[in-house]
Description:
alpha/beta, two-stranded antiparallel sheet
Amino acid sequence: MTDEICSKCDADAVxxxxxxxxxxxxxxxxxxxxKQVKKTIREGDLVESGDTxxxxxxxxxxxxxxxxxxxxxxxxxxxxxxxxxSVHEGIDEYRDESITAAQELCDELGVxxxxxxxxxxxxxKMDDVADAGERGxxxxxxxxxxxxxxxxxxxxxxxxIAIGHNLDDEAxxxxxxxxxxxxxxxxxxxxxxxxxxxxxxxxxxxxLLDVREKEIALYSRLHDLGVIDRCPHVQEGTLRPMVKSFxxxxxxxxxxxxxxxVSQGHDLSSLVEENxxxxxxxxxxxxxxxxxxxxxxxxxxxxxxxxxxxxxxxEEHDFEK
Length: 321
């Protein structure tokens, strides 16, 4: 909160935007967030008449604000259907609370919620396999989560998956792709991600792309949306948390730098897409699970094998003791 007065009225301001040099009260801040979301949807051509939009709901602030905004924009339109999809990774106390919050929000907004569990689809729970494999927990969980969100979206016959990816997430993704020299991924940033042309891939859209994480957190507090979304198995030594910390420090000294990074990143993405020719591998289907992939086994099935191997080695070690 701030001691300043709203730049548009005489009410007390709830935020001062240093990068804009203006303050906003709760009413005008909420209106402005909605305008940003509408602009992103319009300029990115994210939603079309007849679409069924599956909203990825974690129960946290980003996805809660995303659902509330989409219902606010499209809730009265009979030609647009909105349905919630949630993934329960098997992180019991943490995810039980957030799934409950997601269900309560869906009930309040009149949206159906479809929940999928790792235990049902992959026969595992992250609580049981955390730190079991050679790779970081977030690597395993991220790939499983993307795979299951895509499955759930297909199960509800969705045309798009809306995810709560915000401006900070986008800035981090751009910087990470640049640091790793991942030109292919740099070409895929933006408000709409049509990664691969395949019937089993559901396109992803990011209606919150132009809203800062800090402002989503404020909006969620002002409107009582979402719960604290902090996974107990997250590992801070990975690249994203380091990039996030670096960008936050830059933003504190140079307000607006995240907007600049995202803007320039999108310009670079367009240039890369126009001037680089990527040799796309033939899209096949995983010989085990049937999901689209470029080789015999998809990445998810490879990681499942990795976890099983680590578990078997652990049991063998314990037996030898």
